[in-house]
Design a protein that fits this description.
Blueprint: E1 2-12, E2 20-25, E3 47-50, H1 51-58, E4 64-69, H2 76-88, E5 93-96, H3 101-105, H4 108-111, E6 119-122, E7 143-146
Parallel strand pairs: 2-4, 4-5, 5-6
Antiparallel strand pairs: 1-2, 1-3, 6-7
The chain binds iron/sulfur cluster (SF4).
């Protein structure tokens, strides 16, 4: 299983609680006006890495992990495998996506990642709802979904 990876950065603090390793995955179909990272949209961007190679880089630090991009759900099959391996190794996993939680739940491939994701930061970035005071998200429509405590039609938000 391989994924296209733009970058892997250890010690980030803006993509979830504590110091984390952020994995920036290539490709996004949402094209939100005002996107902070339009250079991530190209599906063939970055470089191809196996799940083993990605985990080897992550394992250089003892941080929890955030999958971001781009939209990780554009590579959902590989993301499910990567997230599963990370959870089995005891890491807390956050995942950003431009899809809503309900859209992810309704898709067989994307939803296969959910059992291994602690928090799904969902929804497109909406410029009209931009708020620089929000934690870990750019616009107020986006939610920090506590996946283990949620189900389609009944979202529980993450709260530390
Ligand atoms: S979902 Fe995220 S990466 Fe994709 S266009 Fe929107 S803000 Fe940019």
């Amino acid at each position: 299983m391989t994924l296209r990876v733009l970058d892997i950065v250890g010690g980030t603090s803006v993509d979830g609680p504590g110091l984390r390793t952020s994995v920036y995955l290539a490709g996004c179909v949402h094209r939100c006006p005002g996107c902070h990272n339009p250079q991530s949209w190209e599906m063939s961007g970055g470089k191809e890495m196996s799940v083993d190679e990605i985990i080897a880089v992550i394992d250089e630090n003892d941080f929890n992990v955030t999958l971001t991009g781009g939209d990780p759900m554009c590579q959902a099959e590989g993301v499910a495998e990567l997230a599963r391996r990370l959870k089995e190794a005891g890491r807390n996993v956050w995942c950003y996506t431009g899809y809503t939680y309900e859209e992810v739940c309704g898709d067989a491939v994307m939803s296969s990642a959910l059992p291994y994701v602690d928090v799904l930061v969902d929804g497109e970035f909406e410029q009209a709802k931009r708020d620089t005071g929000l934690r870990f998200r750019g616009s107020s429509n986006q939610r920090l979904v506590d996946v283990a405590r949620s189900a389609a039609g009944m979202v529980t938000l993450w709260d530390d």
